[in-house]
Batch of 2 targets.
Target 1
Amino acid sequence: MFTHAFAADPYPAYAWLREHAPVHRTVLPSGVEAWLVTRYADARETLADPRLSKNPLHHSEAAHGKGKVGIPGERSANLMTHLLNIDPPDHTRLRRLVSTAFTPRRVAAFEPRVRELADRLIDGFAGRGRADLIHEFAFPLPIYAICDMLGVPAEDQDDFRDWAGMMIRHGGGPRGGVGRAVKRMRAYLADLIHRKRGDLGDDLISGLIRASDHGEHLTENEAAAMAFILLFAGFETTVNLIGNGTYALLRNPGQRRLLQDALAAGDTGLLRTAVEELLRYDGPVELATWRFATEPLTIGGQRIGTGEPVLVVLAAADRDPDRFGDPDTLDLTRRDNPHLGYGHGIHYCLGAPLARLEGRTALSSLLGRLPDLRLAADPAELRWRGGLIMRGLRELPVEFEPVP
Ligand code: HEM
């Protein structure tokens, strides 16, 4: 596991684990030992089990495994108290606060802006007849979208693009580069929050500063950690939704035609089920983030000791034949689709409405404007990014009839 060949197609190995070792202890490339949970029913239960903590201090190796679980550089950048690292009651309080700023209404109002961004990016390569869809489309779209939403001024957004590039390029590689990018982003956000305090606007950062719960406000430090986690959690995931999703469509011409015909006829219903199916079939998040047993417990008949790390393999659970009919087939019309691509339980993806909006807009703009889009590489040659949690392509070369 976790080799290049595995990254190209991890699904046969996951099928084997589901069948023969559904709760399996393994040594990760970082040297940390962890339990992998691969069956859908176990995965769903595990994600919602309050006996599993998200706080890395509960890791039995917390003292000597320092920095091996979690976001590189998060200790030094003072990022420990973000949603994905904390448990109730702190989690409940912070999640409620950020939810008052990150509302479905704010997301829905953002749709025209996302479409404009997608169109502008497509304009950049439409006349050329070729493009790398990761670098020129999937990567910049979410970073500009979330910067806009947070209220990062336009003149600073290219800095974010560079920092995000460092984070993605170094994913799975040397941690130094990611750590540096994380620190710069974090310092920038702290400064932006400080500057905005005196001049609140309609953006998400102003919303975070205003957010209050029973008279209690986010501290500047909490607001900066929150803005950062929105960026961190909402960036590479969305790159991979657009990248993996487009790739799956290009490799399944019948399904792609179905979607393209529906869109051409003005029917956007299929687009909704399509985005959910693409998340299930080859989702952006391969493994859910770290969880640690706070007491001895049993998952799928397997005893887990206090302090032992548990990783739920979403990619394996979402192809479990005990839950999904014909799980290895991409079926954009699939209706019974309670996939775990956004997680489950109290840590269920906070950004799901934005992710869905970006996924729908990106795919419909791309297929609408470049109807003859095709893969310009041998699938066997495509490289996937390393790294434990996320699953995504490094590049996606395509060609099409140039559009003036
Ligand atoms: C949590 C997936 C996009 C913000 C999660 C989790 C998953 C996930 C699986 C739960 C992790 C766990 O329990 O270990 C995705 C996917 C996305 C996406 C597949 C894109 C297709 C976004 C976006 C944002 C975002 C756009 C925000 C702008 C968050 C936050 C959490 C989270 C803040 C933590 C919630 C909590 O701990 O309470 N996401 N996400 N995500 N996501 Fe997303």
Target 2
Amino acid sequence: AKAWVLKKHFEGFPKTSDFDLKEVKLPNLKDGELLLESVFLSVDPYMRVYSRRVMKEGDIMIGTQVASLTAYFGLLEVCKMKPGETVLVNAAAGAVGSVVGQLAKIGGCKVVGCAGSDDKVAYLKKIGFDEAFNYKTVKSLDEALRKASPDGYDCFFDNVGGEFASIAINQMKKYGRIAVCGAISLYNDSVPQKGPYVQVSMILKELRMEGFLVSRWSNRREEGVKALLKWVMEGKVKYHEQVTEGFENMPMAFIGMLKGENLGKAVVKV
Ligand code: NDP
């Protein structure tokens, strides 16, 4: 079988030369085992973070199949959104963000999202976001967030972290909840970014900020899949897949996703 191997640990943005395509011999099947052939593979931001922590050079690249319940549990269990509230989500046109916005609409909330291109912003409006803007072209992020919701935000589903999060946290309403899902703006940094710091807003507005891993709810997977499938079949949740053809193009698909080239879920068709 073919496997992508991590040739060299990533420095900053991953490069195609950091990977090697190898032929590996699969172990013989034991009694009771079965061999599955992958049809689609997922490329995800966590692969950038975990590669440094769990892999050594020469290891086969980590990865999983496609299924992500992150939006469902993060919004319901961490943000604990209520009807009538205002929800903010960034990286909103991606796999997680686009579902967060649509679930918040189903839950009776006003939804504000931002993404890194005008096409993505148009897509967000098409799938029901109340307000959407391109964070790369606005003059001031602070102003854009204020314009989208002058009263501030009850829930903030943060996929990006860093400077964006610091600015958004200052615009939370009293008792607001922040779900720290991801920090993609920091994943490729060789040198950690510095402040600004958010503690004063956290104290004065009595905010709650909680990080989470979706694996916390692995025992409720079936519930999440059933709920999402029902909404997809009813047309209440729409999805888009950015399909890259060919296993040999997996590094390019992974790097492209980190650079924002994907709309919706980035997958590789083997
Ligand atoms: P996406 O499909 O959202 O793809 C990543 C997107 O991030 C890109 O398309 C790009 O969109 C955006 N992005 C990249 N760099 C930056 C930046 N510097 N600033 C702002 N946006 C940026 O990926 P996923 O939906 O799979 O993941 C979204 C987030 O959720 C990630 O942070 C990931 O780590 C996290 N996650 C967390 C899980 C958990 O259990 N806690 C599980 C799964 C995902 P754009 O064009 O808008 O810039």
